[in-house]
Amino acid sequence: RKEVEQDPGPFNVPEGATVAFNCTYSNSASQSFFWYRQDCRKEPKLLMSVYSSGNEDGRFTAQLNRASQYISLLIRDSKLSDSATYLCVVNGAGNTPLVFGKGTRLSVIA
Amino acid sequence: NAGVTQTPKFRVLKTGQSMTLLCAQDMNHEYMYWYRQDPGMGLRLIHYSVGEGTTAKGEVPDGYNVSRLKKQNFLLGLESAAPSQTSVYFCASSYSWGAEAFFGQGTRLTVV
């Protein structure tokens, strides 16, 4: 099983739609979880950290399910500017650097 | 507020040539990383450093060397470039292991 797995998409949704992405991770000892956003030909940037109790930032909601080892990202009221690739990120086994999923591509269509 | 800066942004090399990519961060981070990103492969860790004077291998270290002589700089070297090393290279840094990583703008390298 790969360390971090995501559905590559693409997810094509109309403006205003709600869309959700899931990500599974293999290391049950992982403690740090993030969602990053990467625009075409740009560097990844932190979208939000994911906390055990779940957290919200405007239209974005992140959830963590430790028992099932998955993380989710919900985007409400999608905007054209949300079009990007969303990377699920987890810290690896032991003292190792962050492990990145391959990303889920989102296209929001007018 | 520069953050993480990579030099150069673009480069074309001939097979067998060597080059060094420079990464500089001004956030006083201990941890620095080099990733490569290829279509369909995601970000893969090449080498990383947990502090000045230290380096360690990541997932795909072959064909690359690194050095961290100063805390703020992390250099990635290609001794004899191969077409398989055509990629986008990202440098990143973080305050600690589980903390957010900040990325440079990337270097697009083509080896012909």
Task: Write a concise synopsis of the structure shown.
Chain A is mainly beta and 110 residues long. Chain A is 0% helix and 52% strand. The N and C termini of chain A lie far apart (37 Å).
Notes on the protein architecture:
The complex is a heterodimer of chains A (110) and B (112). Chain A is mainly beta and 110 residues long. Helices cover 0% and strands 52% of the residues of chain A. In chain A, the strands form 2 sheets. In chain A, strands 2, 4, 5, 9, 10 and 11 form a 6-stranded mixed beta sheet that branches. Chain A has a 5-stranded antiparallel beta sheet with strand order 1-3-8-7-6, with no helix packed on it. Chain A is globular and about 45 Å long. The mean pLDDT of chain A is 93. Chain B has 112 residues and is an all-beta fold. Chain B has no helices and 11 strands. In chain B, the strands form 2 sheets. In chain B, strands 2, 4, 5, 6, 9, 10 and 11 form a 7-stranded mixed beta sheet that branches. In chain B, strands 1-3-8-7 form a 4-stranded antiparallel beta sheet, with no helix packed on it. In chain B, strand 9 (87-94) and strand 10 (101-103) form a beta hairpin. Chain B is globular, with a radius of gyration of 13 Å. The model of chain B has no long low-confidence stretch (mean pLDDT 95).
**Total count of helical runs of at least 4 residues of chain B:** 0
Main beta-sheet annotation of chain A: 6 strands, mixed
End-to-end CA span of chain B: 36 Å
Helix content of chain A: under 10%
Query: Whole-Å distance between the termini of chain A?
Result: 37 Å
